[in-house]
Design a protein that fits this description.
Length: 452
Amino acid sequence: MGIEGLAERLAEGVVVGDPGVVASYSRDQTFVVPGEALGVVLARSTEDVAVTLAWADENRVPVVPRGAGTGLAGGATATDGSVVLSLARMNAIRELNTADQYAVVEPGVINADLDRAARAHGLMYAPDPSSHEISTLGGNLATNAGGLRCVKYGVTRESVLGLEVVLAGGKVINTGGRTVKGVTGYDLTGLFVGSEGTLGVITGATLRLRPAPSAEPVTVAGTFPSMVAAGEAVAAVVAAGIEPSLLELVDRATLLAIDDWKNIGVEDDTAAMLIGQVDVAEPREPAARMAALFEAAGATAVAVSEDRAESDELLGIRRMAYHASERLGHCLVEDVCVPRSKVPEMIARIEKAASGHDVTVLTVAHAGDGNLHPLFVFDRGESEVPAPVWAAADEIFQGALDLGGTLTGEHGVGVLKRRWLGLELGDDRLAVQHAIKAALDPNGILNPGKAI
């Protein structure tokens, strides 16, 4: 089937069939090889989305929604015979209400752009994925993205008050509202956040804003002789009742990858770096306590920022991690999450799996909330993930579950984690999720093969 019929229902230029353009919209940040899509819809309005889904449902054509394509689980990769529905051009901030502290946005708004708009009014948008300068809010909503500040402010779902969603047949519904509290009926807002485009397409969101910190945050960075020692520092900070706005862990392999790229200078005895930040009204005292806990856990060096420039420089090391790792080869990026007290043990299990299967694993972590990102690096010449990489990943995922954790803390399931779903959810919970999918998407057109 072609897409001529769809093109006839939409304005000129909205539907694109040029093979080169289609190919560019068919991939995300992963190495997953996409299928051949029929075309791309460059949606400009909710109406464009509704028309697209109505046509697709009538003709049983799969639809793959996408934002900026920064996903790390293959959730936005095209499937054969699908239409890729790009929401990147729906990029308006429809409303920014300072009195009630919320914003109404379209899905193509860049995360950092909303934060900057809010800060102009003394507010902030809290969710802060490492890709905040390029990822869209629609993608953040679809995967329930987390980020660096989620240790204090929570993942995306905690900042969503309501949604505008287009269902499979083209009907538009609104969930939630503009109030901080609202418990009428089932929590449909929470259901659609994190559903990876499999239940509906989000075309608008009412997002909670918060007062921006009144003082410049203070950042603390420490280097450690082992990953386990750094993990013990994380546990000590949490146990001490310090409320960091972020607490990030970077292993030696990642630091060396960054050093090879940006020449940051990594000492021979540095096995890990831990970066914490405090954004309370009087941040110096808790930052000093954090620095002391780093030292007590065995840090070989500790630095405390004196101003915003130093703080940004220290935090910039963490933000470079993925791009530095990507320079080494294909990356299978995972994100297990365990109880915070289990971070040191989970780190040890990752190191053991990497060594036991002789694979390269670089680890960074939102350590303050137990969310670890082991990045499995393999040769770009490989057309598929090598067996030892899958074996190490199997061991790491099972280890996370054994420690009371989960398979994914913020990246979503996409296609790359479906192989492990049964381990965590079991047959009964999977059956409930399939029943919800069948009720909202009876013809199975919404991002088939993803998430569940």
